[in-house]
Amino acid sequence: MFPDDTFHPDGDDHPHEECGVFAVSTPHGEGIAQLAFFGLFALQHRGQEAAGIAVSDGSRVRMHKESGLVSNVFTPATMSQLTGYHAIGHTRYSTTGANAQRNIQPFLVETMHGPLAVAHNGNLVNAPALRTELLTKGFGLTASSDTEVMTLMLTSAGGRDWEERLERTLPAWKGAYSLVVLTHDRVLAARDPWGFRPLSVGRLPDGGWAAASETCALLTLGCTDVSEVRPGEIVTLQGADIRRRAMLVILTELTEQKYKYGFVTDVAEDRIRKGLDEDVVRLISSKKNEPAFLLDFRLKAFRHWLTLEEPTWAKVAILITNLWLGFPYMFLICTGALQSVPGDVKEAAKIDGASGFRTIRSIVMPLVLVAVGPLLVASYAFNFNNFALIYLLTNGGPFEGNQTQVGSTDLLITYAFRLAIGGTTPNFGFAAAISMFIFIIVALISLQGFRSTASLEDVN
Fold it and tell me: Among 33, 299, 335, 431, which is most exposed with the fewest C-beta within 10 angstroms?
């Protein structure tokens, strides 16, 4: 069977290249809509059904899209409304989803983190399962294309910024795709981990960067320093700046096929080499002929050590950081309490024949606990509920599989926060119930702690 974009049994000999995507970001914002227009015009052969452009001025996103050729969709009147610094565009040939107005890209939504527009080229083979998962979570879907699924998954993903949210979501998308993402202040471009769909990036002659499905669009704009977006790579375009972020995505259905003979083939190694940093490439090359599970173990260990994406080590990091943050404070408090222990009490214990260890265990430590007991109870209750530490260090992650609501290091309070304001469909009722449960737990801990502290009063 031939792919849809190369063979058409109905006799249609028009070019079908399964969509084209374009993105541009400039520091000056001059002619941003015109840049996007000419970029899409150069990609017209990839899709002739519809076209759309979304532009951000740093706070607000404006968009125009409709059915037709690029030259017919965008008139001087519509182009004059598209002003800003960053833009993405799409020219459509329907693959998944009917050729309907509701499926025209980009898709634009408002999120807790600001506006988000997404355009993509390709197909997700697990799109039906992802749609079902979104519907189960209460999301409302208005279209039948993969792009809406990808957009809504991004809006509900955890992470400090859009790069991290995209990195966490990419492994859940199984298929061949390239995509561009527009936020209020930047543009992101990314490819699937195996690079089945093309995407390149280049420097604009007047400053700024552009990305496109084909280099012909970049050359039309006079771009230099043209390079390919590597498989699994996330490229951030922000004015005159460009940042590249490589994902260490190793195991997919393709590599499992290559690994079944117990070693890494040259084809699999070449695929991996395109998407990984040099250190990991050297690691792969040196272990190339070892059994597949050993190679996979080493690569996973490297990724987990580098990014704290292994649940156990992420929890260990949280505990160590919490201890490190609390130690100086408690050290000062306990030092002061030790100095307040009367010297004649120690002298009396020495006269009675008590050893140094017995004096510390039976006299000094109880007296210190009497002084610092309430503070220890308060510190324990605070650490149990330390939202700031979780939010700043791991944001509740790592998130396993397609799960974006509950992370491995989430506390009840971070989970409640994500339920309330972390997604596009806030669940204030459930978040409030969890908050009440947190209050009850902290109250019980404090009550038991104060009872234990009161029992120490007999020492005096």
Answer: 335
pTM of the model: 0.59
Look up 19 and say whether it is catalytic: yes
| Contact residues for 103 (Cβ-Cβ < 8 A; gap 6+) | 92, 94, 97, 143, 144, 145, 147
Q: Any idea how long the chain is?
A: 460
Encoding tokens for residue 417? 């926060």
Angle at 355 between CA 352 and CA 358, to 5 degrees: 100
Structural fold of domain 20-246? Glutamine Phosphoribosylpyrophosphate, subunit 1, domain 1 (3.60.20)
Max avg pLDDT among 89-93, 200-204, 351-355: 200-204
pLDDT > 70: percent of the chain = 75
Q: Where are the alpha helices (DSSP H) in 156-189?
A: 162-169
Distant-in-sequence, close-in-space partners of 68: CB < 8 Å, separation ≥ 6: 50, 51
DSSP 188-249: EEEE-TT--S--EEEE-TTS-EEEESSHHHHHHTT-EEEEEPPTTEEEEEETTEEEEEE---
For residue 398, whether the previous peptide bond is cis, meaning omega lies within 30 degrees of 0, is yes
Identify the active-site residue in 19, 216, 223, 334.
Answer: 19
